[in-house]
Amino acid sequence: MRDELNPAGVHVACVYPPDVDTPQLAEENRWKPAETAAISGTIRPMAAEAVASAIVRAVERERYAVYPDRSVALLAALGPLAAPFLRRMVDRRVRHARRSRA
Questions:
Q1: 19 neighbors 45 (Cβ within 8 angstroms)
Q2: DSSP 62
């Protein structure tokens, strides 16, 4: 989409936010499976205003990938190198959540 719209002067950006502290997240957390909660439960949600500000700044600077949080940007940069470790960590948390639920 970015390549198609760029000649028309339209900027396209993709935002990669962590959990955002909104009523939607609060409702989602009520129904979230234990496995999902085990994975995302350690991440502190960002304020919606902070995410919106990061998006505006990135679009003004014509960034195509928007990482509103440093930890998300670091994960994006190091993700391919850290993938084996991250998979093991997530698998361990999911197994623990399943055992706790049983």
A1: yes
A2: T
